[in-house]
Design brief:
Shape: elongated
Number of strands: 12
Helix content: 55-70%
Strand content: 15-25%
Largest sheet: 6 strands, mixed, barrel
Strand order of the largest sheet: 2-3-10-5-7-6
Number of domains: 2
Order of helices and strands: HHHEHHEEHEHEHHEEEEEHEHEHHHHH
Length: about 450
């Protein structure tokens, strides 16, 4: 019997062919390949952080100048933003639709101006009534007279309280909110009744902070004259350290009877919308000049016409000076911090000369060495910038709570602080990094 020897190849040829789908080997996942510069930068960052950790005290002392400079800028910017909101909300009740006419301006900058303004004629009730009658663009007019006196209730007293004699229209012009009780009526004003609307500070000082509704109907004495409390206004708080709630408001006819001394008034005029303000000011100025007998050739009006912009402009000029001073202090601190960083980096280059030689000997380029020390300087100042931002916001928080201002955090100022500190790191680290990159590897390896 003949035996056929089948080789492996023959067996494979005789094996039935597979008709199913062909199985492909699993594909390997492609790894994300980053550019070489990324790995170089990452390695330089790692070395920089390890160097900072190895010299903690030196790093902390290096950060002081940068932290102080950035913290000063952040704190002042945050506080002034809170002040901006406070000032805006303070004058928003009158805003850009109200102007005043008075004997002298609200802000007097010299003794000579004070004497000159005092020679003017007083603004009287007849002046205000003439404006109300003849100015067809004037929507509301009101009168305010001011005095200062000691106010008493029972055995308690409060000194230096502002006494305001107002016409009823002033509540609408100033957008005053009576939280408890009511305003006085037209009948009470015309009759000169002894009624008063008081501020929350008077409630705190004379009635031991009692609920406002329990104070309504009680009596307060001003210069020996008793007044019935018919209302208490909402609490406004302080601005620039001065309370806006320490007052007693009474009808103007009552004020004239109680305070017989001759005093100049302040006439308040409101227009329906801001677009009519300039035309209404021109009408009121013409009326007042005519009552003063002024000709067109005379530049002096004999009175002061003001809007709330005078206070806002004064505030902006004051805060602008604060900005300039703060930026100057911060710039000095950052320059000092930059010099310290440069000095420390030069010391670091000297200490690590042998390390630089070894790195160059194993293939590190000048660019690698430059990048390493430059990143180290930027890391130091960036950390200082972040710490400065944190300390600045913390300082602003404490000051805002102490002064009663709202706290407005600004992401822009934080980014600016870190960016400026990083720029200081680049400027101060460039020379030490360049010096390190220029070292000869043979001479560096010989260094002890």
């Amino acid at each position: 019997m003949e035996t056929e020897l089948l080789t492996e190849t023959a067996l494979e040829r005789r094996a039935p062919r597979r008709t199913g789908p062909r199985l492909e080997p699993p594909r390997r996942r492609r790894r994300l390949r980053l550019p070489p510069a990324f790995y170089t930068t990452w390695e330089s960052l790692r070395i920089a952080l390890s160097s900072l950790r190895a010299n903690k005290l030196r790093t902390a002392l290096t950060l002081v100048g940068v932290v102080v400079g950035v913290a000063a800028v952040i704190a002042v910017v945050t506080i002034i933003k809170g002040l901006d909101q406070t000032v805006a909300s303070t004058f928003s009740s009158q805003g850009s639709t109200v102007f005043t006419i008075s004997k002298r301006p609200s802000v007097i900058t010299s003794r000579e101006d004070f004497i000159r303004f005092n020679r003017r004629k007083d603004v009287t009730q007849d002046d205000a009534e003439s404006i109300a009658r003849l100015c067809n663009l004037c929507w509301r007019t009101g009168i305010a007279a001011n005095a200062q006196a000691t106010v008493k209730a029972g055995d308690r007293s409060s000194e230096g309280v502002r006494i305001r004699g107002l016409t009823l229209s002033m509540f609408a012009i100033e957008d005053a909110v009576v939280e408890a009780g009511r305003q006085w009526t037209d009948v009470e004003e015309a009759a000169g009744r002894d009624v008063a609307v008081i501020g929350p500070d008077v409630v705190d000082n004379l009635f031991d902070g009692a609920p406002f509704d329990r104070v309504v109907g009680r009596q307060v004495r001003v210069e020996g004259r008793s007044y019935e409390v018919v209302g208490v206004t909402e609490r406004l708080g302080k601005i620039f350290g001065f309370s806006r709630d320490n007052f007693v408001e009474i009808p103007y006819p009552t004020f004239k009877k109680a305070f017989t001394a001759r005093t100049s008034l302040i006439a308040f005029i409101q227009v329906p919308e801001e677009a009519q303000l300039t035309a209404a000011e021109d009408q009121a100025r013409a009326i007042m000049r005519n009552r003063r007998g002024k000709t067109f050739r005379e530049e002096e009006d004999g009175f002061t016409l003001e809007t709330q912009d005078v206070f806002i402009d004064l505030y902006k000029s004051a805060t602008a000076n604060i900005y300039v001073v703060t930026i100057g202090v911060a710039a000095i601190s950052l320059v000092v911090g930059g010099i310290v960083v440069m000095n420390i980096m030069l010391v670091s280059v000297t200490e690590r000369t042998r390390e630089i030689g070894i790195r160059k000997a194993v293939g590190a380029s000048r660019r690698d060495i430059l990048l390493q020390f430059l990143i180290e300087a930027v890391v130091i100042t960036s950390i200082g910038g972040l710490l400065g931002v944190g300390f600045g916001f913390a300082l602003a928080f404490v000051l805002a709570k102490a002064m009663g201002f709202p706290l407005l955090f600004s992401a822009g100022s934080a980014i600016l602080g870190v960016s400026v500190s990083s720029a200081v790191g680049i400027a101060s680290g460039l020379w030490p990094a360049w010096k390190a990159s220029k070292l000869d590897p043979i001479e560096a390896l010989r260094a002890e």
